[in-house]
């Protein structure tokens, strides 16, 4: 069978899974959120990461149903965490095209209702590039998400070309420092001018700042010394299937 045909059947065959990567508050070391990351359990190829199929999903018109599935599954998981006494929001990534879909807001409202959770259980992650497109429509969507209580994070920050005056006027919550700035080499530099500047920029805009791709103590210590709020990365944990995520929490993170 063709890959695209298999992809068309993946939803009904229940072949998608979400893995959850913990986000941890730097000061308290407490779990403060989790990012849902999509994987396809392909019958022959094993676990396929999103880079291997999302572009095709977009091409063949499957992005909307896949995104709906991701939203509902992530929010139901968030509800299950709540019932177990763990009160953290779940973060879902949105592609540029998805973010530009006029009906996205309705679909998010539907997913919240379907899972039976309030808007503040959800954070959406969109890249800088996405935010800088379609300026008026994007701003309106962000205001409506804000009214629903849904949080918005800017993903991969520092790799795009943001208009700072635009960022300033958007209702955003979190800025995620792209992992390239926290690589082994980058986090050892004598003067971490970029990381420092991004953290200060985020704070000056009233945003929480999270460092992503934290793989070692060097990067963690750098972020801590610069007043960053939260971290995510292999140093804390890889993205985990739901059962293993729960065990990770029970084992004290
Ligand atoms: O671990 P990782 O290979 O999961 O993710 C690769 C890329 O795929 C990242 O840029 C991430 O934002 C994106 N991604 C992961 N899950 C989803 C999803 O559910 N929807 C969209 N649109 N992108 C996702
Ligand atoms: O683009 P986005 O930030 O949504 O993508 C997250 C991607 O980063 C996923 O592919 C995830 O598996 C990966 N990731 C998470 N933690 C780390 C890390 O510590 N190091 C590296 N290299 N990748 C990571
Ligand atoms: Mn992300
Ligand atoms: Na990112």
TrEMBL record:
One MF annotation (Gene Ontology) recorded for this entry: oxygen binding
Residues of the EAL domain: 1-253
Annotated keywords: c-di-GMP
Protein name per the record: Diguanylate cyclase DosC
Source organism per UniProt: Thiohalobacter thiocyanaticus
Organism placement in taxonomy: Bacteria, Pseudomonadati, Pseudomonadota, Gammaproteobacteria, Thiohalobacterales
Residues of the whole record sequence present: 510 to 762 of 768
């Amino acid at each position: 069978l063709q890959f695209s045909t298999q992809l068309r059947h993946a939803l009904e065959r229940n072949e998608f899974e979400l893995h959850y990567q913990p986000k941890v508050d730097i000061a308290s070391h407490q779990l403060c959120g989790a990012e849902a990351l999509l994987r396809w359990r392909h019958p022959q190829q094993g676990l396929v990461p999103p880079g291997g199929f999302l572009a095709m999903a977009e091409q063949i018109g499957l992005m909307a149903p896949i995104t709906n599935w991701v939203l509902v599954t992530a929010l139901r998981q968030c509800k299950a965490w709540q019932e177990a006494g763990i009160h953290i929001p779940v973060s879902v990534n949105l592609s540029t095209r998805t973010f530009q879909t006029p009906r996205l807001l309705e679909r998010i409202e539907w997913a919240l209702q379907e899972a039976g959770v309030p808007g503040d259980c959800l954070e959406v992650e969109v890249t800088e590039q996405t935010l800088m497109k379609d300026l008026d429509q994007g701003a309106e969507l962000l205001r409506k998400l804000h009214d629903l209580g849904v949080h918005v994070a800017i993903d991969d920050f520092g790799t795009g070309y943001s208009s700072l005056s635009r960022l300033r006027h958007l209702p955003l919550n979190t800025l995620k420092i792209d992992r390239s700035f926290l690589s082994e080499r980058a986090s050892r530099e004598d003067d971490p001018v970029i990381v420092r500047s991004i953290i200060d920029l985020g704070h000056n805009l009233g945003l929480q700042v999270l460092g992503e791709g934290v793989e070692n103590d060097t990067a963690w210590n750098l972020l801590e010394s610069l007043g960053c709020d939260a971290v995510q990365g292999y140093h804390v944990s890889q993205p985990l299937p739901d059962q293993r995520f729960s065990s990770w929490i029970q084992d004290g993170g």
